[in-house]
Write a structure and sequence with these properties.
Length: about 450
């Protein structure tokens, strides 16, 4: 039986609608999370800590700390600690979201609810100004949590709309469309920053607002274009609790964590993904801060490099998807991780203000970024039991984009200890090495069989 019991034409229509959520949320992930908000919030925090109020002060290193809950926190490390905190909260919240989603009779509406809540937080970032870093910190935490919750639902829908042999292609096309959408908005914001070069702060705030509006507006397409389906396993298995949706969801979460021992290959891949995706996400979060604060590039220069990443990433995601169709997603992921190791090492060596090398590094990131993540999503979908996709994807999403914590914690601590972002970047190599070691222990065929899923033609 095909996915959702639909004929190919109907299935393709739903797949096309599904792609658009990658397009929608990538505006926030790219413009806000990856490029503008981290250095902007860092500047706001530095203003609060050191009292910098003019553009001439922006290249002076702030040596004063913020006082947060009785602790001294480096202003330059604040964003990375916030992402760490968001991930710890995600580890608690997202599995419950997954359990609820698996019982939901309308995943598209649930997707929309989380997405629109997150987009509202993103739009409110427009009002973060002056030295009010606390408001920005709360918005970043909430937007990250709502993004993660929406992606739990979104990723789980992939299993409902695509057969095993289609998932690498469908997942890669979604990522490619996401890069296109995120890149187009980023290009518009690049023009805005250039035109408003005499008022960069307002240009950044308008760009943050545009990302929230974009995310909200384009979420309408998947919400309306994907049909609701009854849950496959509404009782959540024999171990689920009675007495209401939330209580039953907690019961199923405990059952899932315990049940993971029955799927050792799935567990091993999840651990591998935890480490190597932490490295990927931290590089994404750190790149804009690294480019501005360590390498000395202007905000517009860093934004241009991210534009390169976005548009190269379209071809990279599609190429990785085609390659996976020939040799299997598992092998292509391994190759991608070795490329990531090289990217981090070259980033550590790059001289200050060397734009050609910085641009070349952006091209390399674009080639490997989308392909690695898209194939990880589709490969994982083959390793999880049917009817519990959202709950298992919630564990996956806890270490997905915007919710990594080991890497951001390492990056923030090393920067605070050394007062430099270079050793902080180099330290991330350990995450890729651990991820590769664990990935080598994954047997794809055994994992698919253990989950009781249909074996794809190419594994």
């Amino acid at each position: 039986m095909t996915a959702a019991g639909l004929d190919p034409q109907s299935r393709q229509r739903e797949q096309r609608a599904w792609y658009w959520y990658d397009w929608a949320n990538s505006a926030f992930v790219t413009t806000t999370a990856a490029v503008l908000f981290a250095p902007y919030l860092t500047s706001v925090a530095e203003k609060a800590a050191c009292g910098y109020v003019t553009d001439e002060d922006k290249h002076i290193k702030c040596t004063q700390d913020l006082h947060v809950l009785g602790l001294d926190v480096s202003a330059g490390s604040l964003v990375f600690y916030l992402v760490t905190a968001a991930t710890i909260l995600s580890a608690i919240v997202l599995p419950i979201v997954g359990a609820v989603a698996d019982r939901s009779a309308s995943k598209p509406r649930l997707l929309g609810g989380f997405a629109w809540a997150g987009s509202a937080m993103a739009a409110l970032m427009f009002f973060v100004a002056g030295s009010n870093w606390q408001f920005g910190a709360v918005l970043l935490l909430l937007a990250t949590l709502f993004l993660g919750a929406s992606l739990v639902v979104y990723d789980s829908i992939l299993v409902e709309i695509a057969d095993p042999d289609e998932r690498d292609r469908v997942s890669s096309r979604g990522w490619a469309l996401g890069y296109l959408g995120g890149g187009l908005l980023l290009a518009v914001n690049f023009v805005l920053l250039t035109v408003m070069s005499d008022n960069t702060e307002m240009a950044v705030r308008i760009s943050l607002l545009s990302a929230g509006i974009w995310w909200a507006a384009f979420t309408v397409i998947p919400v309306r274009g994907i049909r609701s389906r009854p849950p496959v396993n509404p009782d959540g298995g024999q171990s689920a609790e009675r007495g209401g949706l939330v209580r039953a969801s907690f019961g199923q979460l405990w059952h899932t964590l315990r049940d993971l021992r029955s799927y050792p290959v799935t567990l091993t891949f999840l651990l591998a993904y935890l480490f190597y995706n932490d490295g990927i996400q931290t590089v994404i979060y750190a790149a804009s801060v690294y480019g501005e604060k360590e390498l000395g590039f202007e905000k517009s220069t860093v934004l241009m490099a991210f534009l390169v990443v976005q548009f190269v990433g379209i071809g990279g995601a599609l190429a990785f998807g085609r390659l996976a169709g020939r040799v299997g997603a598992y092998r292509v992921i391994k190759v991608g991780l070795f490329i990531w190791l090289a990217v981090v090492f070259v980033g550590w060596l790059i001289p200050d203000n060397n734009f050609p090398l910085f641009l070349l590094l952006a091209v390399a990131i674009g080639v490997v970024l989308g392909g690695t993540q898209a194939l990880s999503r589709s490969f994982y979908s083959q390793l999880i039991p049917r009817g519990r996709e959202a709950e298992y994807f919630s564990l996956y999403q806890a270490c997905e984009r915007g919710t990594s914590w080991i890497g951001t914690l390492i990056f923030g601590l090393v920067h605070q200890w050394t007062d430099s972002y270079r050793p902080a970047l180099l330290a991330l190599m350990v995450l890729f090495v651990l991820g590769i070691i664990l990935l080598m222990r994954v047997d794809p065929r055994r994992g698919i069989q253990e989950a009781g899923n249909t074996m794809p033609t190419v594994v």
